[in-house]
## 1
Amino acid sequence: MVPFAGHPTIGTAWVLATEKLLPTNSLRFNLEEGIGPVEVTLEGDPERPSFLWMRHGEARLGPELTNRAEFAGALGLAEADLLTGAPIRTGSTGNTFLYIPLRDRDAVDRARLDVPALLAAQGEGPNLGVFVFAPDPDPRAGAERDAAAGEPREYRVYSRMFAPHTSGVPEDPATGSASGPLGAYLVERGLVAPAATVAIVSEQGTRMGRQSFIRIRIGMTGGRIGLILVGGSVVPVIEGRLRVD
């Protein structure tokens, strides 16, 4: 059982709202999941929200995995395709992933996961979904302009997630549970400029033809991460009813 995931959280919250199964005018409530209560906040009409946020718990980032050439090879890439100065490491806010930073969008698009090579590089331990990403090349560009406009700059990161060996999903077009630790990684490594609120959008699924945009908000207090929000909108594609006799 998956202890925490974005699609079920956001989708369930949207259905509860649109089916009027929440108290009147509820904009914030908790869903009980495998990791405990997950807070959800609605934006717009409480009965048909335009956007939904889920609050992640504290991000836990693992130590650097130093066999970089092996991990690059497991993606069909060269070590030079990895982002210089950015460690390969695990991260979790309830569901653990392996994060491999790459130097640019082209490297992300060229990645092809070789599962046996990945498991050999990873060694002992649980099998993890592999999240590859390339952040903005200049994290401070435009920050002053956006601050003058009174809004936080929205940094961009280009992402993909592979999990054929963990969940049978060759590639996921949008991974909400991986996006919270991603935001924490970007902040911790200085790949986005620090601010009271750091706004990030992760573009995922583009290479596989199912483009998605996941919003991430990191709240900073005293130079430390105090809040992680991940959100998106919902597009219903099918409806059904279950009758219990």
## 2
Amino acid sequence: MIELGKYQMLEVVKKTKFGLYLAKQGNAKTTVLLPSKEAPENASIGDLINVFIYKDSMDRIIATTKQVPVTVGELAVLKVKEVGKIGAFLDWGLAKDLLLPYKEQTRKLKEGDSVLISLYVDKSERLCATMKVYDLLSTDSGYKKDDIVTGFVYDKNDTLGLFVAVDNKYLAMIPKKELYTPINIGDTITARVISVREDGKLNLSLRDKAYIQISTDSEIILDKLKASGGFLPFSDSSNPEEIKDEFKLSKNAFKRAIGKLYKEGLITINDDGIRLVKK
């Protein structure tokens, strides 16, 4: 059986001016056309060719030797080419764009958006994309605490945080308490694994280990002090949300950073705020 949405080795059973007709070995009753523009030169009857099977704009099953970014059941990040009446159309390198129906979208899309999708065959035997990929993501990444990973932000929960597909295939999350800089759905991020849950899901942070991050945080505070004329109305007792808004730091990170600056003799810490030490 020739399978839609997958790569498979098919045998050349007929040659025409339009291209090559291919079939499963031992079953020449069902054939599919590989257009001449994609057919290997000097192909002969009986040769095996690895092709991807899809449907063209006339809804005919057709073969291609092109490399597509996703096959049925797999995951990939694709760009929205346009949004139409029945859904969004994604660029996947073929003449016929891939349909992402509205019912398979998890958020409103616009041209140029990047989306994490999986490929499936719908009830009408059409290849379609879905953004409902949570259950398709794996939990056996093999990553450990403090590993640096790359992932795609594919969803968010205002209470929990951001959902990330590490390597576009492993379940991960940036907890809300770790979000100190603006991150949007559709962003590709580099993060540190802060824990691996018992179920294998990864918790991530955009920040480095505290003893490394403290130098960066200290520089942020110094730059803001210099830009403000040498004084900022923030101290150990400042509201955590105000610290987050101003410095994009947690209160603990802020306290570690100003403690470092104080020990180095660069600032003074008073009840009304912090000041640069004049030299």
## 3
Amino acid sequence: MKIVEESLHIPVEDVVLAADVVIPDRPRGVVLFAHGSGSSRHSPRNRHVAAELGDAGLATVLADLLTPVEEQRDAWTGELRFAIGLLSTRVAALADWLTMYSRTEGLGIGYFGASTGAAAALVAAAERPGTAQAVVSRGGRPDLAGEHLHRVHQPTLLIVGGSDAGVIDLNREALRQLPDEARLEIVPGATHLFEEPGALEQVAELARDWFLLHLRPVTQPAGQARWGP
């Protein structure tokens, strides 16, 4: 299977974000990853999930939501990892870029959010309902999306570890607030980071099946600008 792998710098709002893009031959959709608190596109857990999605024919985009300078600032203060408004704006802007990038235009877009990144993905889904088609949250903090949860109409899958008691409760409450198709999957024995043998594989399988079920090609507006090769 032919695979295109690219490391790009994508202009977003008033910054430029680094991203690793992997596109299989004839992709069945594209998944944008929103990383959690203190994480980046180098997250081994998200890269593992992305590899599994790629094997299923899905393109993946692992992008840093913070610039290197902002990451340094956040390492000292921890403040930007909880700036859900800022992070969600960048998730939405990256999704807009995907609709214009020549290798991904016309593909259905899904969001995969982890920890606080899940809140950013849910807010972006609520604010831009016509862009993303599905959302998956891994060990997410959907409570940080606040009132936006009531406006998330995309099919949403919440995945939580069975030993992550506090986060299970937060996700159960979020499930009650999501207005349309939504499901909570609990991985038995898994903790917050899904480090137990086989736990992350279950996350990848659940996410893969969800995206393959819900992502569909979209029709591009006539004359839309293109970015890239």
